[in-house]
Structure formats: structure tokens, C-alpha cells
Amino acid sequence: MRFDQRVYAWMLLGLCLASIPCAFISQKDNDKDNSSSSGFMSKFNDHIQVVRLSGMIIDKTEAGLLSSKTGASMSVLKELKEALKDENTKAVLLRINSPGGTVPTSQELHQAVVNLKKAGKPVVISMGDLAASGGYYIACAGDKIYANPGTLTGSIGVIMNLMNFKDLTGKIGVNPVTIKSGKFKDIASPYREMTPEDREILTNLIMDSYDQFTRAVADGRKMPLDKIKTLADGRIYSGRQAKKVGLVDELGSMTDALADLQTICRKKYNLDKDLAVKDQDSQSILANLLESRTAIENKLDLQKLLPSQLVSNLSNQPLWLYQ
Amino acid sequence: MNQAQSAYLPLFLDDRARRGFIDSVYAILMAPNRTLEIMCDANRHLANKSNLVAASIAATTASAVSAIGLGQYMYFVTGLLSWFITANLLCLTCKIFGTRQIQFATAIIASAWTMLPLIFIGPLACLKTLPYSHYPVGMAMIICIGWSCALQILVFKHCLGINLARTLAILIAAPFAIISGAIFWLALILISSADFL
Questions:
Q1: What is the pLDDT of residues A39-52, one digit of tens each?
Q2: CA dist., res. A83 & res. A77, Å (int)
């Protein structure tokens, strides 16, 4: 009878070990069905990275001790750089929902997209509600642009907001005194009238920035510069209008953009199945709990109520911003 | 105990018998409480090379089969890590709460055998392709993991040399108290530094 115990145990163990190939095959079948899942393991497998850019494009890291706010320009820049470095990231889907913002930050993000393309990683853009001005500038660097028919886009141009308080200071009896090293050091001063020379210098600055913008769009969209300049009078376009004039490639949702990106990846990398998708929005419970702490606005942000002319970060500098 | 009953008793329980790897497998599955009691006693089950090798084979096989079954190959590494962590935790808990000290080798052997039920995750994974099988197969896998956890509790009980109620109190209350304390202090730091976050 003792001998039987060993036989039973060996049989059981043998059955478990024999099931390994079967379990392996069944797991592979399962993987085929769930290849687009965004699980923890997608980090270690080849995947498509979804990056979301939302809100004003400005060099301000909205980060706390535990997390950075998803969608903020600087964290998006970091994500794009990580996607470039990560060998497992095979392509990027960039979701843009932004009215634009400051010029240098937009250019850094644009360059990050260009670098991804240079590294051979396809980048498809999906436009949300708004992808205007600086938001469009970043989008035009992508391989393909998807917009919803109702998306607001375009607004290709440069703007600089200046305020003049000269009359106000005179009324309340304040006399500002400026000591400067050069004639134009207080070129955008709100306490004096703008001279024609000041205006010319600032207009040249704006037009140089405009030239950089239109050239980047012409390069990205592979369209003649003259045609871009006719479109770039600062007007906004709906997604459907933008498709007609060639500013976007396809009309469709983020799901359509992702499906197209999967097709591009399958062709490019000779894959017989879709890549996994890593989306920061679907993080673990713990990560979401930690993020939620910073999502709570604990004080009234008065800056959001002010026009951009009065916001210190956005005044006295050229902006690629839809207003 | 009559002869028919004793015939089904694992050979492992007989202190005079020579215990092989397969005897341990049978004993862990059929009489886990008494088997683990023997395994946790270094005088009855020596922490020698052959027993260490047998335990390592059990833990490695169980980790590998469960990792393949669950389709997450990182679980193999996680399983092995959790084995070593459990063994260390066992030694530490015995030092703090136990009525006797145990050797690390004994802890390694005992905690390795608690992973044996995970081996059934492999055959269960084969059933996943059947229609409507995801829920029952998932439940069965959870039962295997629960079974393994129950064996770990038994190991703690025998190593600590106290009854089950006290073991559960230590295993549940101690981490709860530590985590609650940690959360309290973390929350205090977070609240007090809210403006800087």
C-alpha cells in the first residue's frame, strides 16, 4: 500500500508537469485575443505608448511629492523622451487637447516628436476638442494627424499680449521711474506709450516667430510654404475644414487613430498581431489614488479667471496660443 | 487507528522511514498539518542538503508552472522572491514572538513546500480555452493560491509553537498595526505639507 502513495504522487506531479506545454499554448491563444491590453507587463513587452497633452503648453511642472499632473507639458516632454529611449516602445499615439502656449516649450515638444520619427518610431496624432496654434505646431510633426470633425484646430500664428497702464498710473498719482542700461530695455513696459521703433522691433520678433511656425508646418505637412502662409492667417478651422485644406490627414476618433497606428506597426515591424497599448490613463489603483491627491484643487486659482494679458507667464512674450 | 486508515497515512509521517521527495509531495497534499509540523522541527526533519534540494525543486517547479499558467513570466521571479521573503519573515517572527528559534535552512525548507499547491495552476490553465470556463477556472486558481497561503499560516503556527488563533492574531494584527501606524504618519506628513505638494 505504501508503494501506491508514491505512484499516485508521481502521477499527479507528472500530470502537472505535462500540462505545462498545454498551458503555454492556451496562454498564447489567450494573448492573441488580449494583445491590446494595457497591463503591467506591457512595460516589458513591445508596445504602443499613449501620451496625452492637455491644457496650456507652458514650462511649468505641475508636480507634487508623489506624482506629476498627467497632461502637463513638462511631463509630456518627459514621457516622449522616455518613449524615445525605451526600446520596447515601438510607436507613440499622441493625444492633443491644447490651445497652444509659449513658443520655446511648444518647440521642445515638437522636437521630441521629430526625434521619435527620426528614431523610426511612428507617431500618430489624435486631436481632442482643441489642437490649435502651439497644439497644432506639435501635431504637424507627427506621421499622421487624426481629428474629429468638430475639433477646433489651426490658429497658425503668433500673438503677444501687452497692457498699458500709463493713463491709470497718471490718474491714481503713481509715477513709475525706470533706470535702464539701453534704449529698448523697457520695450514692453506697461508704464509708457509704445514708440514706433518699439513696435517695429516687436513686430519683427513676431514675424520671425511666425516664419518659424509656418516653416515647421510646411516641413511637417510636406506642403509648399506659400500655401501654408495663405492658411496661416490666425483663423481656426473645424476638423472637417482642416481635412479639406490639408492640415489634417483623416477624420476620426482616438480609437481610429490607434487602429491605424496598429496597422502601421504591423507593416513596419512585420507583426502578425497587434501590439500592446500602454496608456498612462489606465494606471494601477495605487497610482490613481496618489494622483487623485494632486488633482484636488485646494485653493482657488485666480490666474485662471484672468485674461492672458494679465497672467505673468503669458504676457510680454510671443505666444502660439489660440485666444 | 485501524490498518485500512493507516494505509492512507503518508509515509512521511513515520519518523523511522526514509523520506524521499515524492513522499513529501504526497504528505503535503494529504496531511499538511502534521507534515509541516515535522518539517518545522529540525530534529525530526533535518535541514540537510538533500532536503534543501527537494524543497528547492518543489518551490521552483511550483513557481514556474504557476507563472506559465497565469501567463505572467515575472511571477516566476516574484514567486521565488516571496519564498525567500517568507523564510526571512518566519525567522524574524520566531525571534520576536516565538517560543523557540528556528534555523534559516528549516524556514527555507518549510516555506518552499507551502508553494506546492500552486503547481495545480498549470493544469487549470489548460481549461481556460473551454467555453464559459474563465470564471470557474479563475476561482479554482484563487483556491490554489488560498491553499498555499493556508499552508504558510500553518508553517508560522508550527514554527512559532503557538496555537492557530494566536498565530492569526500575530499575522493579521501585527502588519495591520504597522501599516496603520505608517499610514497615520504618512497622512500627517501629507496634510501638514499639503501646500508644498
A1: 444 555 789 999 99
A2: 10
